[in-house]
Amino acid sequence: MNTNVTYFIVPLIVAALGLLSCSSNPGVAADAPKPATHTVAIEDTSFQPAMLTVKAGDSVVWVNKDPFPHTATSEAGRFDSGIITPDKSWTYTPKTKGDFAYTCTLHLTMKAMLRVE
Amino acid sequence: MTKSAAVRTGVAMKVPAITIAGLLFVSATWASAQAPTDAQIAHIVVTANQVDIDAGKLAESMGSNGDVKKFGQQMVTDHTGVNKQATELVTKLKVTPQDNPTSQSLKAGGEKNIANLKTLKGAAFDKAYIDNEVAYHQAVIDAIDKTLIPSAQNAELKALLVKVRPAFVAHLEHAKKLQSSLK
User: Fold this and answer.
1) Are strands A51-54 and A37-43 parallel, antiparallel or unpaired?
2) Where in the sequence is the domain holding A50, given as residue range(s)?
3) What pLDDT, in 10s, does the model give residues B75-97?
4) For B152-166, what is each residue's pLDDT tens digit?
5) A68–B167: do the CB atoms touch at under 8 Å?
6) Are A55 and A103 in a shared domain?
7) Within this chain, do residues A56 and A22 fall inside the same structural domain, yes or no?
8) ipTM score of the complex?
9) Distance between CA atoms of B20 and B138, rounded to whole angstroms?
Protein backbone atom coordinates (compact mmCIF):
# COMPACT_ATOMS: atom_id res chain seq x y z
CA MET A 1 0.00 0.00 0.00
CA ASN A 2 2.75 2.44 0.98
CA THR A 3 4.71 1.47 -2.06
CA ASN A 4 1.71 2.23 -4.30
CA VAL A 5 1.29 5.66 -2.76
CA THR A 6 4.97 6.40 -3.32
CA TYR A 7 4.59 5.46 -6.97
CA PHE A 8 1.91 8.15 -7.27
CA ILE A 9 3.39 10.82 -5.08
CA VAL A 10 6.98 10.88 -6.30
CA PRO A 11 6.11 11.58 -9.96
CA LEU A 12 3.62 14.24 -8.85
CA ILE A 13 6.29 16.02 -6.83
CA VAL A 14 8.73 15.78 -9.70
CA ALA A 15 6.15 17.19 -12.08
CA ALA A 16 5.25 20.02 -9.71
CA LEU A 17 8.91 20.94 -9.25
CA GLY A 18 9.31 20.88 -12.98
CA LEU A 19 6.43 23.32 -13.45
CA LEU A 20 7.78 25.50 -10.68
CA SER A 21 11.20 25.66 -12.21
CA CYS A 22 9.73 26.68 -15.56
CA SER A 23 7.49 29.39 -14.19
CA SER A 24 10.18 30.77 -11.95
CA ASN A 25 12.62 31.21 -14.81
CA PRO A 26 11.53 34.26 -16.80
CA GLY A 27 14.75 34.08 -18.83
CA VAL A 28 13.32 31.25 -20.90
CA ALA A 29 10.35 33.33 -22.03
CA ALA A 30 12.51 36.38 -22.76
CA ASP A 31 14.85 34.38 -24.98
CA ALA A 32 12.05 33.11 -27.18
CA PRO A 33 9.37 35.82 -27.55
CA LYS A 34 6.44 35.18 -29.82
CA PRO A 35 7.05 36.63 -33.29
CA ALA A 36 5.36 40.02 -33.71
CA THR A 37 3.42 41.30 -36.69
CA HIS A 38 4.23 44.77 -38.02
CA THR A 39 2.25 46.77 -40.55
CA VAL A 40 3.52 49.11 -43.26
CA ALA A 41 0.82 51.25 -44.84
CA ILE A 42 1.30 52.01 -48.52
CA GLU A 43 -0.42 55.35 -48.79
CA ASP A 44 -0.01 58.65 -50.66
CA THR A 45 2.54 56.90 -52.90
CA SER A 46 4.83 56.22 -49.94
CA PHE A 47 5.68 53.53 -47.39
CA GLN A 48 4.64 54.47 -43.84
CA PRO A 49 6.75 54.15 -41.79
CA ALA A 50 9.66 54.56 -44.19
CA MET A 51 11.99 52.88 -41.67
CA LEU A 52 10.84 49.79 -39.81
CA THR A 53 12.90 47.69 -37.39
CA VAL A 54 11.80 44.11 -36.68
CA LYS A 55 13.29 40.93 -35.24
CA ALA A 56 14.14 37.98 -37.47
CA GLY A 57 11.06 35.76 -37.54
CA ASP A 58 8.59 38.65 -37.13
CA SER A 59 6.04 39.19 -39.87
CA VAL A 60 5.66 42.38 -41.86
CA VAL A 61 2.37 43.14 -43.60
CA TRP A 62 2.26 45.75 -46.35
CA VAL A 63 -1.28 47.10 -46.82
CA ASN A 64 -2.05 49.04 -50.00
CA LYS A 65 -4.35 51.93 -49.05
CA ASP A 66 -3.85 53.79 -52.35
CA PRO A 67 -6.37 53.54 -55.19
CA PHE A 68 -3.78 52.02 -57.55
CA PRO A 69 -1.25 49.12 -57.44
CA HIS A 70 2.14 49.11 -55.77
CA THR A 71 4.94 46.63 -55.02
CA ALA A 72 7.34 46.22 -52.07
CA THR A 73 10.54 45.07 -53.72
CA SER A 74 13.94 44.62 -52.10
CA GLU A 75 16.62 46.42 -54.09
CA ALA A 76 19.04 43.55 -53.39
CA GLY A 77 16.52 40.95 -54.55
CA ARG A 78 15.74 39.62 -51.04
CA PHE A 79 11.97 39.91 -51.40
CA ASP A 80 9.39 40.98 -53.94
CA SER A 81 5.68 41.27 -53.27
CA GLY A 82 4.72 41.43 -56.92
CA ILE A 83 1.67 43.62 -57.62
CA ILE A 84 -0.36 44.53 -54.51
CA THR A 85 -3.72 45.81 -55.75
CA PRO A 86 -5.76 48.42 -53.81
CA ASP A 87 -7.03 47.26 -50.39
CA LYS A 88 -4.91 44.09 -50.57
CA SER A 89 -1.89 43.20 -48.50
CA TRP A 90 1.27 41.09 -48.67
CA THR A 91 3.06 39.45 -45.78
CA TYR A 92 6.76 38.65 -45.52
CA THR A 93 8.64 36.99 -42.67
CA PRO A 94 12.32 37.91 -42.81
CA LYS A 95 14.69 35.26 -41.39
CA THR A 96 17.98 37.00 -42.14
CA LYS A 97 19.33 39.95 -40.19
CA GLY A 98 20.39 43.06 -42.01
CA ASP A 99 19.25 46.34 -43.59
CA PHE A 100 17.07 45.83 -46.63
CA ALA A 101 16.34 48.88 -48.78
CA TYR A 102 13.21 48.44 -50.84
CA THR A 103 11.14 50.32 -53.38
CA CYS A 104 7.96 50.12 -55.45
CA THR A 105 8.94 49.06 -58.95
CA LEU A 106 6.00 51.06 -60.35
CA HIS A 107 6.83 54.28 -58.46
CA LEU A 108 10.57 54.64 -58.07
CA THR A 109 10.25 57.71 -55.85
CA MET A 110 9.02 55.35 -53.11
CA LYS A 111 12.01 54.38 -50.96
CA ALA A 112 11.98 52.65 -47.60
CA MET A 113 14.10 50.46 -45.32
CA LEU A 114 13.39 47.22 -43.45
CA ARG A 115 15.92 46.60 -40.65
CA VAL A 116 15.99 43.02 -39.33
CA GLU A 117 17.77 42.54 -35.99
CA MET B 1 13.06 84.50 -64.20
CA THR B 2 11.29 82.69 -61.38
CA LYS B 3 11.58 78.94 -61.06
CA SER B 4 7.98 78.43 -62.15
CA ALA B 5 8.44 80.73 -65.10
CA ALA B 6 11.54 78.76 -66.06
CA VAL B 7 9.59 75.53 -65.82
CA ARG B 8 6.79 76.93 -67.92
CA THR B 9 9.15 78.27 -70.53
CA GLY B 10 11.00 74.95 -70.64
CA VAL B 11 7.75 73.10 -71.03
CA ALA B 12 6.54 75.39 -73.77
CA MET B 13 9.79 75.04 -75.68
CA LYS B 14 9.83 71.27 -75.47
CA VAL B 15 6.22 70.57 -76.34
CA PRO B 16 4.55 72.43 -79.11
CA ALA B 17 1.27 70.60 -78.56
CA ILE B 18 -1.30 72.55 -76.60
CA THR B 19 -1.98 69.63 -74.26
CA ILE B 20 -0.57 71.61 -71.37
CA ALA B 21 -2.12 74.90 -72.36
CA GLY B 22 -5.03 74.39 -70.02
CA LEU B 23 -2.78 73.80 -67.05
CA LEU B 24 -0.65 76.77 -67.87
CA PHE B 25 -3.89 78.69 -67.98
CA VAL B 26 -4.65 77.37 -64.49
CA SER B 27 -1.32 78.58 -63.18
CA ALA B 28 -1.10 81.85 -65.00
CA THR B 29 -4.69 82.99 -65.14
CA TRP B 30 -6.45 81.76 -62.05
CA ALA B 31 -3.74 83.24 -59.88
CA SER B 32 -4.31 86.73 -61.21
CA ALA B 33 -8.07 86.38 -61.65
CA GLN B 34 -10.51 84.72 -59.35
CA ALA B 35 -9.60 81.39 -57.76
CA PRO B 36 -11.46 78.29 -58.96
CA THR B 37 -14.31 77.07 -56.79
CA ASP B 38 -14.28 73.58 -55.27
CA ALA B 39 -16.79 72.43 -57.91
CA GLN B 40 -14.46 73.69 -60.63
CA ILE B 41 -11.38 72.15 -58.97
CA ALA B 42 -13.19 68.79 -58.85
CA HIS B 43 -13.93 69.08 -62.57
CA ILE B 44 -10.32 70.05 -63.37
CA VAL B 45 -8.99 67.05 -61.38
CA VAL B 46 -11.26 64.55 -63.14
CA THR B 47 -10.53 66.08 -66.56
CA ALA B 48 -6.75 66.16 -65.99
CA ASN B 49 -6.80 62.47 -65.07
CA GLN B 50 -9.04 61.56 -68.01
CA VAL B 51 -6.75 63.32 -70.50
CA ASP B 52 -3.83 61.18 -69.30
CA ILE B 53 -5.94 58.00 -69.30
CA ASP B 54 -6.86 58.59 -72.96
CA ALA B 55 -3.23 59.17 -73.96
CA GLY B 56 -2.18 56.09 -71.95
CA LYS B 57 -4.71 53.90 -73.76
CA LEU B 58 -3.28 55.01 -77.09
CA ALA B 59 0.30 54.28 -75.90
CA GLU B 60 -0.78 50.82 -74.75
CA SER B 61 -1.89 49.98 -78.27
CA MET B 62 0.43 52.10 -80.44
CA GLY B 63 3.64 52.25 -78.42
CA SER B 64 6.54 50.29 -79.92
CA ASN B 65 8.90 50.17 -76.94
CA GLY B 66 7.81 47.67 -74.28
CA ASP B 67 8.55 50.05 -71.41
CA VAL B 68 6.54 52.82 -73.09
CA LYS B 69 3.56 50.49 -73.50
CA LYS B 70 3.84 49.45 -69.84
CA PHE B 71 4.05 53.09 -68.77
CA GLY B 72 0.92 53.90 -70.78
CA GLN B 73 -0.87 50.96 -69.17
CA GLN B 74 0.19 52.17 -65.71
CA MET B 75 -1.06 55.70 -66.44
CA VAL B 76 -4.46 54.22 -67.30
CA THR B 77 -4.51 52.18 -64.07
CA ASP B 78 -3.18 54.87 -61.71
CA HIS B 79 -5.21 57.79 -63.05
CA THR B 80 -8.36 55.65 -63.16
CA GLY B 81 -7.74 54.88 -59.48
CA VAL B 82 -7.26 58.56 -58.63
CA ASN B 83 -10.44 59.48 -60.50
CA LYS B 84 -12.38 56.80 -58.63
CA GLN B 85 -11.16 58.28 -55.35
CA ALA B 86 -11.97 61.83 -56.49
CA THR B 87 -15.45 60.80 -57.67
CA GLU B 88 -16.16 59.05 -54.36
CA LEU B 89 -15.15 62.19 -52.47
CA VAL B 90 -17.21 64.64 -54.50
CA THR B 91 -20.20 62.29 -54.22
CA LYS B 92 -19.75 62.20 -50.45
CA LEU B 93 -19.36 65.98 -50.30
CA LYS B 94 -22.39 66.41 -52.59
CA VAL B 95 -20.32 68.62 -54.88
CA THR B 96 -21.31 68.60 -58.54
CA PRO B 97 -18.17 69.11 -60.66
CA GLN B 98 -18.61 72.24 -62.71
CA ASP B 99 -17.25 72.60 -66.21
CA ASN B 100 -15.02 75.63 -66.71
CA PRO B 101 -12.63 77.13 -69.28
CA THR B 102 -9.62 75.30 -67.76
CA SER B 103 -11.29 71.90 -68.08
CA GLN B 104 -12.36 72.73 -71.64
CA SER B 105 -8.84 73.79 -72.53
CA LEU B 106 -7.39 70.61 -70.97
CA LYS B 107 -9.82 68.46 -72.91
CA ALA B 108 -9.11 70.27 -76.20
CA GLY B 109 -5.34 69.98 -75.57
CA GLY B 110 -5.67 66.27 -74.84
CA GLU B 111 -7.64 65.70 -78.02
CA LYS B 112 -5.07 67.59 -80.07
CA ASN B 113 -2.24 65.55 -78.51
CA ILE B 114 -4.02 62.32 -79.40
CA ALA B 115 -4.68 63.50 -82.94
CA ASN B 116 -0.98 64.29 -83.29
CA LEU B 117 0.14 60.96 -81.78
CA LYS B 118 -2.11 59.04 -84.17
CA THR B 119 -0.10 60.39 -87.10
CA LEU B 120 3.12 58.92 -85.66
CA LYS B 121 4.54 55.40 -85.51
CA GLY B 122 7.34 53.46 -83.85
CA ALA B 123 10.10 55.41 -82.13
CA ALA B 124 8.61 58.75 -83.20
CA PHE B 125 5.35 57.87 -81.44
CA ASP B 126 7.19 56.74 -78.30
CA LYS B 127 9.23 59.94 -78.12
CA ALA B 128 6.27 62.26 -78.70
CA TYR B 129 4.14 60.43 -76.15
CA ILE B 130 6.82 60.42 -73.44
CA ASP B 131 7.89 64.05 -74.11
CA ASN B 132 4.30 65.08 -73.63
CA GLU B 133 3.94 62.97 -70.46
CA VAL B 134 6.98 64.69 -68.92
CA ALA B 135 5.64 68.16 -69.72
CA TYR B 136 2.07 67.27 -68.77
CA HIS B 137 2.91 65.85 -65.35
CA GLN B 138 5.19 68.80 -64.61
CA ALA B 139 2.39 71.20 -65.54
CA VAL B 140 -0.14 69.27 -63.41
CA ILE B 141 2.18 69.40 -60.37
CA ASP B 142 2.67 73.12 -60.96
CA ALA B 143 -1.09 73.67 -61.09
CA ILE B 144 -1.68 71.52 -57.99
CA ASP B 145 0.90 73.51 -56.00
CA LYS B 146 0.17 77.01 -57.19
CA THR B 147 -3.55 77.02 -57.78
CA LEU B 148 -5.56 73.93 -56.88
CA ILE B 149 -4.30 73.28 -53.32
CA PRO B 150 -4.23 76.98 -52.32
CA SER B 151 -7.73 77.54 -53.77
CA ALA B 152 -9.48 74.44 -52.38
CA GLN B 153 -11.88 75.47 -49.62
CA ASN B 154 -13.10 72.08 -48.43
CA ALA B 155 -10.51 70.41 -46.19
CA GLU B 156 -11.14 66.93 -47.62
CA LEU B 157 -10.78 68.14 -51.20
CA LYS B 158 -7.54 69.90 -50.26
CA ALA B 159 -6.35 66.71 -48.50
CA LEU B 160 -7.10 64.63 -51.60
CA LEU B 161 -4.96 66.94 -53.73
CA VAL B 162 -2.12 66.62 -51.22
CA LYS B 163 -2.51 62.82 -51.17
CA VAL B 164 -2.40 62.36 -54.94
CA ARG B 165 0.45 64.81 -55.59
CA PRO B 166 3.25 62.25 -54.88
CA ALA B 167 1.80 59.93 -57.53
CA PHE B 168 2.19 62.69 -60.13
CA VAL B 169 5.77 63.24 -58.96
CA ALA B 170 6.50 59.50 -59.30
CA HIS B 171 5.00 59.49 -62.81
CA LEU B 172 7.09 62.53 -63.76
CA GLU B 173 10.32 60.84 -62.60
CA HIS B 174 9.35 57.62 -64.39
CA ALA B 175 8.59 59.52 -67.62
CA LYS B 176 11.89 61.44 -67.38
CA LYS B 177 13.77 58.16 -66.98
CA LEU B 178 12.06 56.75 -70.06
CA GLN B 179 12.74 60.01 -71.93
CA SER B 180 16.48 59.71 -71.38
CA SER B 181 16.47 56.00 -72.26
CA LEU B 182 14.77 56.74 -75.59
CA LYS B 183 17.43 59.23 -76.66
Assistant:
1) unpaired
2) 37-116
3) 999 999 999 999 999 999 999 99
4) 999 999 999 999 999
5) yes
6) yes
7) no
8) 0.82
9) 9
